[in-house]
C-alpha cells in the first residue's frame, strides 16, 4: 500500500468516525 494511499485511507476513516460520533451525539440529544 502506497504511503499516500494509507494517508488517504486514515483520513477518510477519521472523517467517517467523526461523523458517526457527531451523529450519535445528536441522536442521543434528540431522543433524550
Largest sheet: none
How many DSSP E strands? Answer: 0
* Average pLDDT score: 92
N to C succession of SSEs: H
Structure explained in plain terms:
The protein has one helix at residues 3-31. The chain has 32 residues and is an all-alpha fold. The protein has one domain.
Topology:
Layout: H1 3-31
Protein name: ABC transporter permease
Organism: Escherichia coli
Notable features of this structure?
32 residues; mainly alpha; rod-shaped
Q: What's the quick description here?
A:
This protein is an all-alpha fold and 32 residues long. It has one helix at residues 3-31. It has one domain.
Amino acid at each position: 500500500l502506497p504511503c499516500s494511499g494509507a494517508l488517504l485511507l486514515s483520513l477518510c476513516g477519521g472523517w467517517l468516525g467523526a461523523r458517526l460520533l457527531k451523529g450519535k451525539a445528536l441522536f442521543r440529544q434528540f431522543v433524550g
